[in-house]
Design goal:
The protein is an all-alpha fold and 197 residues long. Helices cover 79% and strands 0% of the residues. The longest helix is centred in the N-terminal third of the chain and has 85 residues.
């Protein structure tokens, strides 16, 4: 008959407690606990460092984004100003030319008639007021004041010309005013140095 294996194994301990085995086991457990603790500590330290790096990176990205947005806003503002300045100067020139033509009107000339010249001055005056309004929204105060002063001076002179009063030709004065405005506008746009080269 086959020999049956007992279901219980009896261990016989001879000689008492095996302190070296227990010491080795405790040392192994302590080493394992310290190893796990050290790994957890290193992982936490790495997570903090990574988190700090991510925060610094996000902060730098936000700063760069703000700089980019500010630069784009500045470009848009300069473009808006440039458009207002170009429009103002174009209409100002048209007004000066129309006033000059009316001043130099020769009744013996067949065309254009005086009424046409007066209408041209009136139209360019209305355009100049509209251009001045646009400039008032975009320009700094010193430039707004100079442009308003120029429009008032030109309008007053133009009215005298229209009334037929004999006046001295002030075209050179108006060109000086226009050129002064060009200089102030270039300074405001930051392009003054480009034009001096």
């Amino acid at each position: 008959m086959p020999h049956a294996t007992p279901s219980v194994i009896h261990v016989i301990v001879a000689g008492g407690v095996d302190w070296p085995a227990i010491g080795a086991t405790v040392a192994t457990v302590i080493a394992a606990v310290l190893g796990i603790s050290g790994t957890a500590w290193q992982a936490e330290r790495g997570r903090r460092a990574s988190s700090n790096d991510l925060k610094a990176s996000l902060s730098a990205s936000i700063d760069n984004l703000k700089l980019g947005i500010n630069a784009e806003n500045d470009r848009a503002r300069r473009s808006e100003k440039r458009q207002a300045y170009v429009n103002f100067q174009t209409v100002l020139n048209r007004f000066i030319v129309a006033t000059d033509r009316l001043l130099n009107y020769d009744p013996r000339a067949a065309r254009p008639g005086r009424d046409e010249l007066v209408h041209a001055v009136a139209d360019s005056s209305a355009d100049l007021q509209n251009a001045l309004s646009s400039l008032m929204l975009a320009a700094p105060e010193h430039l707004r004041n100079r442009a308003d002063e120029a429009v008032q001076l030109l309008s007053s002179y133009s009215q005298q010309v229209e009334l037929g009063r004999h006046l001295v030709d002030k075209s050179d004065d108006f060109r000086r005013i226009r050129n002064d405005l060009y200089t102030k506008m270039r300074d405001d746009l930051g392009t003054a140095e480009l034009t001096k080269k």
